[in-house]
Write a structure and sequence with these properties.
Structural class: alpha/beta
Strand order of the largest sheet: 2-1-3-4-5
Helix content: 40-55%
Low-confidence stretches: 157-161
Largest sheet: 5 strands, mixed
Shape: globular
Number of strands: 5
Mean pLDDT: 93
Number of helices: 8
Order of helices and strands: HEEHHEHEHHEHH
Strand content: 15-25%
Distance between the termini: 33 Å
Radius of gyration: 15 Å
Length: 161
């Protein structure tokens, strides 16, 4: 999780900082397969969450739709869309840092816990977290991230949302 926070924090030096990052790692060896950060604003794509992007990139790299044998680490608890995608991908486990409630202090969220999504599914996936919650929450308070949150709010007002 520490490595993931460092990976994600690198976005703070770009024009599109984000606190949301995800790694897909081999469950058995812990070797990282892929990493991704949120790209919703950068790509003008509301589905470009870090977790979805990581699954897409991992499946493309492996040339298969199943991520059985892999674990996802995410800086924040996956939203319902991302957790659903993790289940469809067949991930063994999802480990998150901070909670949906933590993220909601700074931006809008869908308040459905990842564990609840997993319990409602026919597919099995362990959900663990929060892990190193304070470290992940610190991503929210970086000054560049705080400016980005303000810009996100202004953008939503301009678009009528």
């Amino acid at each position: 999780m520490r490595e993931l926070c460092l990976f994600t924090a690198r976005t703070f030096k770009t024009s599109h900082p984000v606190p949301y990052g995800a790694f897909i790692v081999n469950t058995r060896t812990g070797k990282r397969l892929i990493g991704a950060t949120n790209a919703v604003v950068r790509e003008n794509d509301p589905s470009a969450h870090a977790e979805l992007r990581a699954v897409r990139l991992a499946c493309k790299k492996l040339k298969r739709v199943s991520l059985a044998g892999y674990t996802m680490y995410s800086t924040f608890e996956p939203c319902a869309m991302c957790m659903g995608n993790a289940l469809w991908a067949g991930l063994d486990r999802v480990v998150f840092g901070a909670t949906i409630a933590d993220a909601a202090c700074h931006c809008v969220q869908i308040h459905v816990p990842a564990r609840q999504v997993a319990r409602q599914a026919d597919m099995a996936c362990l959900v663990d977290g929060p892990v190193l919650r304070e470290l992940c929450c610190a991503l929210l308070t970086d000054p560049n991230m705080q400016r980005a949150f303000q810009n996100w709010k202004v953008g939503k007002r301009k678009s009528g949302k």
